[in-house]
Amino acid sequence: MNGGLNIIEITLNTPGAHKLIETAAGLYGSKMLIGAGTVLTLTSLKEALSCGAQFIVSPVFKREIVEYCASRNIPVFPGALTPTEVCDAYESGAYMVKLFPASVQGPAYIKSIKAPFPDIKIMAVGGINKNNARDFLDSGAKAVAIGAGIIRPEWVEHENQEAITSAIVEFRNAI
Is 98 among the catalytic positions? Predict the structure, then answer.
């Protein structure tokens, strides 16, 4: 895809999210991974999957969501912050644990979490941008997720592909 973007998450609190997931999966599902974010219930999880979501992200750890996905080999990224939440999410079958909000705690927190849990893959989410992403990765995060940190809503609204592509390339170059 333009700028090297090959994974996108459409949050369920976006107006028309299910239709957007269905459209994106139909158009780009063979070229990129399309996921559903802000998944909070089993009902919304199942609806997102029926629309074509290929992975699931949640701002919180809900055991039933993680176990449902893990039992069906669907990558799931539950949100966690405390060591207990991180461990519980991992032990329930999380593909990777979404440390959220990462920017509030900072890269040093990820390093601290990784010390007792070296095998748990952490994705830093929340407040990630081109200026701090590398710090999170260097502190032990396996991945970072971006959104408002690089893409402005008006670019999406006005379909400003050039600005979006440029921001993605700039972010990738920064890390």
Answer: yes
Q: CA dihedral in degrees (174, 161, 154, 129; nearest 10)?
A: -10
Q: Which of 9, 22, 62, 114 is catalytic?
A: 9
Q: Is 46 a catalytic residue?
A: no
Q: Are 139 and 108 in contact (CB under 8 A)?
A: yes
| 27-59 pLDDT per residue, tens | 998 899 999 999 999 999 999 999 999 999 999
Q: How far apart are CA 158 and CA 121, in angstroms?
A: 36
pLDDT tens-place string over residues 73-107: 999 999 999 999 999 999 999 999 999 999 999 99
What backbone torsions phi and psi does residue 126 show, to the nearest 5 degrees?
105, 105
Instruction: Identify the CA nearest to 77 among candidates 65, 137, 20.
Output: 65
Name the class of domain 86-175. Answer: alpha beta
Put simply, whether the predicted model's pTM sits higher than 0.90 gets the answer yes
Segments making up each domain of the chain, as ranges: 86-175
Catalytic, out of 22, 62, 98, 114: 98
10 Å CB burial of residue 15 (0-12, 13-18, 19+) is exposed
